[in-house]
Amino acid sequence: MNQVKDYMKHDLDILFVGFNPSLVSGETGHHFANPRNRFWTILHRAGITPRRYHPEEDFTLLDLGYGLTNIVTRPTKEAAEITREEYEEGRKTLNEKITFYKPRIVCFVGKGVYLEYSKQKRAPWGVQDTSVVPHVMDFVAPSSSGLVRIKVDKIVHLYSQLPDLVQQMKKKE
Fold this sequence. Notes:
One of its GO terms (molecular function) is hydrolase activity, acting on glycosyl bonds. By secondary structure, the chain is of the alpha/beta class.
């Protein structure tokens, strides 16, 4: 397995946070590399990227102001394989990363990711009323996994809110 690197820097517009790398991502070393994962299609259809990027181009999202990381680094076949200990360690590490880099928005790619991170029992889709890290907007979106039963058009609609939210955050600076 290859390490799936974080792509983060200061002054990001959006940091996308997934559960953990898939086995395909672990084999290739790239985020959202499983062909059944719709992440790259969703970003393009939602107006976040100018075209549909490919997993091997994951590092180029930094040029657009977007970063990529996961709450857990170990690749698995499905998120159900992640242990409590891995989530707890990942939650602390993710909080440190967000506190250090201070992206404008953290988009949790999956409600379960946000619930593990925030230790909340439930959360609505979209912008959360309170953020875990002050001055960083928490945004909860459906997972892009092909296993998710939410229609892709609804997922795209939720993600399409992000560009306007970025502009709102920039106006507040």
